[in-house]
C-alpha cells in the first residue's frame, strides 16, 4: 500500500508527475518518427494440372480425354508445392531476389499458413509476402518471386523428363496486392519508449522519496484550536499564549477560556492532566497519563489526583 500511495502522490505533484509524463510522450513521438516505415505486398499462387491430365496416351488413334484442372487436385500437387516452397526459402535464392539474410527486406514463402485468410483451407498453394522499406521495392520483389516459382517449376519438370503436355502450372489466385504501409513497428517503438522513460522517471522519483522517508519522520506543523490542546503521542509540545514567561517550577495549567491560560503559583509534581514547562520560553509539554479519567481529558479543566479544579486552580470535589 505504501508503494502505490507514494506513486500516486508523485503523479499528482505538479513538478514531478506532469514533467515525467511529458518527457515520456516526447520520447515516444521521437521514436515514432525515427522508426522507418515498412510496406508489405503479397500474392497467392496455386498449382494446377494440364487439361490432358497427368498421363498421355502412346496410341495416337486412342487419345486420352480432356479433364478439368480444378477437379484434379491431389496429394501430388501438394508435394510439388512443398518442393517449390523449400527451394524458394533457400538463402541464396532470397538474396538473388533482393532480400538477403538479416537485411531490411524480408520475404516469406509458405503454403499460406501465415495468411489469416487461408488458415482453414488446404491445397497446393504457394504464398509469397514481402516486407520492404518502400512500396515499389515490395511489389518488385513479389513479381520476381512469382517468375522464380514458375521457372523453378518448369525446370524441375524438364529435369525429370515429364511430357510437356502434362506440365503443372502455377496460376495466380488473385493479383499481387497493392503495397500497404505497416505502422505496427512504429507504434511498438513509441510504446516502448514511453514506458521506458515513464518507468525510469518515476523510479528515480520514488527512490528519492523513499530515501527522504527513511531518514526520519517529516515534522508536521499544527495550529492550536482555542480551548483544545491536541496531542498525538503521550507528550506534545504546544505554544504558550503571549505574555507567559518561563519558570523552572512545575505549575498546573488551567483552561479558563478560549485562548487563555492561568498558572497557579507554587511547585508541584507533575500529575496527570498537568503541564511541564521546559527551557523553551514559548513551549510547554503536556503529560498524558495512561490512566487518565474522563474528567481530565484534553480540552477540559485538568484535575489533581482525580479531583477537578475551579477557575482559581484549587481542587474541589
Automatic annotation (TrEMBL):
Residues passing through the membrane, by range: 20-39, 187-207
Disordered, as annotated region: 240-275, 293-317
Residue ranges, compositional bias (Basic and acidic residues): 307-317
Top-level lineage group: Bacteria
Keywords, sorted A to Z: Membrane, Transmembrane, Transmembrane helix
Protein name: Capsular polysaccharide biosynthesis protein
Organism: Planotetraspora kaengkrachanensis
Lineage, broadest ranks: Bacteria, Bacillati, Actinomycetota, Actinomycetes, Streptosporangiales
